[in-house]
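#help-structures
NK: newbie question, is this the right format to request a structure? protein is Threonine synthase
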Amino acid sequence: MSAPAVELADQKPRTTHRPGAFGHARALVCRECGHEVELGPSYACPECFGPLEVGYDEEARARVTRAQIQAGPPNIWRYKALLPVPDDIESSPNTEPGFTRLLRADNLGRTLGIDTLWVKDDSTNPTNSFKDRVVACALSAARELGATTFACPSTGNLANAVAAAGARAGIKTVVFIPADLEKPKQVNSAVYTDSLVAVNGTYDDVNRLASEIAGEEEGWAFVNVNVRPFYAEGSKTLGFEIAEQLGWRLPDQVVIPVASGSQLTKVDKAFQELIKLGLVEEKPYKIFGAQATGCSPVSAAYKAGTDAIRPVKPDTIAKSLAIGNPADGIYVLDICRRSGGAVEDVTDDEVRQGILLLARNEGIFTETAGGTTVAVTKKLVETGQLDPTLETVVINTGMGLKTLDAIADQVGPAATIDPSYTAFSATGIGARD
Ligand SMILES: *Cc1c(COP(=O)(O)O)cnc(C)c1O
Ligand SMILES: [Zn+2]
């Protein structure tokens, strides 16, 4: 657990929520000790400070069928029966993310030496990252809890998603970012809200500030702080979609980027739920975590064979992964070890190469987080940690236009010429293979 979670007293729910406000969700359950608290803006166990997760009425969920899901809309609400959202969720304005493309990536597979490779491309979500999924679920919870302000500390993409969803929902929105964030990510928030706050400090400083504000102000829903259990459930939809798009079966291996570790943890939870509900056949699968070396506390602990994650001060171009004190890091270690996967990290140069690998092999422009995931996949093959004969899914969580600076020096015109055939001819570009 990170320190701020322990310091912040949980807010009392201010209103009793309407019946069915959280769908089949039953209570918040401590991941460590199983202690239960009522559904509300709480995230730390009052008994042991462990993280709270959404627990469900399993009898109600057991009735969910593939046909029911397939009859739903082409967005994350097709899985609403497996999320802490009301049955009428589609009638509330939201950004309706999800059901993004699962692309067969044969060119990249050939280049990396992987027989069967897929890219789950979350860059096409409404604000161009996987964060729209978690924010959509957090917004639903914020509404049902009667929150008056929708907020987050963010490494960039989360602020974009919160600001857009808040605008669409017509709720006051305040988003906090480290002041040194990439300009495009700042603009991508500021277009949606006049309350973007740049903080002089790292993400971990911004996060601490957010916890302090959440403890002081009334009615604030910080998506990844006091409504984090609801937020986190949104990441399950990535796992649900991968399984459904593969024809209701699980892949053998998945490579997932790690910032706080929430996404990786919840993709695993999604696979486990699908098995438990009989929606896919049970089978072994391996989960791999990807970090940038400049912020790799989880990878370092994995390699050291320990559970002790030492917080670091991030120094990497993969800013959306730059969380030095990852809240769910220990669960990432557990899942990757238990499943037979691994956690690996790559340098910023490899991250840039990863961006180009995906762009030039598959026509997908990813941001530095996706460059990290692709480069880690390459390294996992080269080091024999990932089995290239097994079906593998790589998750692309973000969009390259947000981190243009990372590769702006590496790519550009191959030639600048006068508008004449002779000049073009002289470049030799027409004669290239
Ligand atoms: C936030 C983010 C992640 C990682 O999310 P966690 O759940 O905190 O591990 C990965 N990729 C992108 C692009 C992100 O914005
Ligand atoms: Zn507990």
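mod (FA): yep, format's fine, and the tokens are attached above. The chain has two domains: 25-93+131-231, 102-127+235-406.
NK: thank you!
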